[in-house]
TrEMBL record:
InterPro entries: Beta-lactam-related, Beta-lactam/transpept-like, Beta-lactamase/esterase. Residues 34-347 form the Beta-lactamase-related domain. It comes from Amycolatopsis pretoriensis. This is CubicO group peptidase, beta-lactamase class C family. Pfam families: Beta-lactamase.
């Protein structure tokens, strides 16, 4: 695909980003639809989109990129002194202390070290949509490893767990705090709970179409439904929805579970991290971006690195500075702030990317943008 098929604008000095985006689109094929946005020091320098049906204003499910918005709320409450990272979760939420979980701290929970990655028996689609239901199911659940000794991605439940702490302390949900403190003041196209009037702008997520080689790769790495991986990704429920289909279920978009239910454009993803750098003081941002868990992830069975609620994105993109924080989403989205370079980045795509998580093309796009930033600063 030539650069003529790429819509939108770039600032002077970022022309190579447009060319790289066009190259990605050509490699991905004719049904590729995506958005790419970047800000430097709060100024939007890249605003691009391409593909069938998609526009700059299109909204799609962003899966786990939602966790960045949810945990910005937690970071703000820690900054306000409302929450204490080293306080026991059971202090705020007594029922959570059952089955060997009494000593788990909020810090350990945010770092994916609690071991409560799912529930015996799994969840229906309707249950996954409702953070209150997830929290109620997980309060009596025995952890799947001894808390604090290992880490594993709490993919579908971390927002419900941290959200219940927020609700117990403040009487309000993460989604309500986010709307009032982040989305509305900054007029972000990133919603935790999609308003009915915006439904016409929503594009369904298209399923992944793996090649025969990729199917063989998936089969070779397959794990059982009742393994830690199976439980973490809800394969242990007989009627579990396909992961790629979650945002296509209207109740998920409406209730917006804080782990995976957000709906956004790339403008909204990048804009949320501009907001984060303005709302968080440097000390809070540094603490939440500090590595707390790194290495072999018991849930994903590959390498991961986490701070507090956020992913350590420099682990995937070494060109970024220490202290960069953000989160990717299963369909391929990626969003982050890199305070050292002043970069805020948002990428969104409609078709679920193989094998899930940050789409591989983010490596190329992040590198192109970072090179342009570096060149502009001389």
């Amino acid at each position: 695909m030539s650069s003529e098929h790429i819509q939108g604008t770039v600032a002077d000095g970022f022309e190579a980003v447009r060319a790289e985006f066009a190259a990605v689109a050509a490699d991905e094929g004719g049904d590729y639809a995506a958005q790419l946005v970047a800000h430097v020091d709060g100024e939007r320098v890249v605003d691009l989109w391409t593909g069938p049906e998609i526009t700059a204003d299109s909204l799609t499910g962003v899966f786990s990129s939602t966790k960045g918005a949810a945990h910005l709320v937690v970071a703000l409450l820690v900054q306000d002194g409302v929450l204490d990272l080293d306080q026991r979760v059971s202090h705020y939420w007594p029922e959570f202390g059952a089955a060997g979980k009494a000593a788990i701290t909020l810090r350990e929970l945010l770092a994916h070290r609690a071991g409560v990655v799912g529930a015996d028996g799994g969840f229906t689609a309707e249950e996954l949509a409702d953070d209150r239901v997830i929290a109620e199911r997980l309060a009596p659940q025995r952890p799947y490893w001894r808390p604090g000794t290992q880490f594993g991605y709490h993919a579908l439940v971390i927002g419900a767990l941290t959200g219940e702490v927020v609700r117990r302390v403040t009487g309000r949900s993460i989604q309500e705090h986010y709307e009032e403190r982040v989305r509305k003041p900054f007029e972000l196209d990133f919603y935790l709970g999609l308003p009915e009037e915006l439904e016409p702008r929503f594009l369904t997520t298209q399923p992944m179409l793996p090649t025969p080689e990729q199917l063989a790769q998936l089969a070779a790495g397959a794990t059982g439904a009742d393994s830690i991986t199976g439980i973490a990704f809800n394969r242990n429920h007989p009627k579990a929805p396909e992961l790629w289909d979650l945002p296509n279920i209207k109740v998920v978009r409406q209730l917006s579970p804080a782990s995976v239910g957000g709906v956004a454009s790339a403008r909204g993803l990048a804009g949320m991290y501009v907001a984060a750098t303005r709302l968080l003081d440097p000390g809070t941002a540094a603490e939440f971006a500090q590595i707390h868990s790194a290495g072999d992830d018991l849930s994903t069975r590959n390498r991961n690195a986490f701070g507090l609620g956020f992913a350590i994105v420099s682990d995937d993109y070494p060109v970024l500075g220490q202290g960069a924080f953000g989160h990717s989403g299963a369909a391929g989205s990626q969003a982050f702030a890199d305070p050292r370079s002043g970069l805020a980045y948002g990428y969104n795509r409609r078709r679920f990317a193989f094998p899930g998580g940050a789409a591989p093309e983010n490596v190329r796009l992040v590198s192109a943008i970072h090179q342009a930033v570096t060149a502009k600063r001389g």
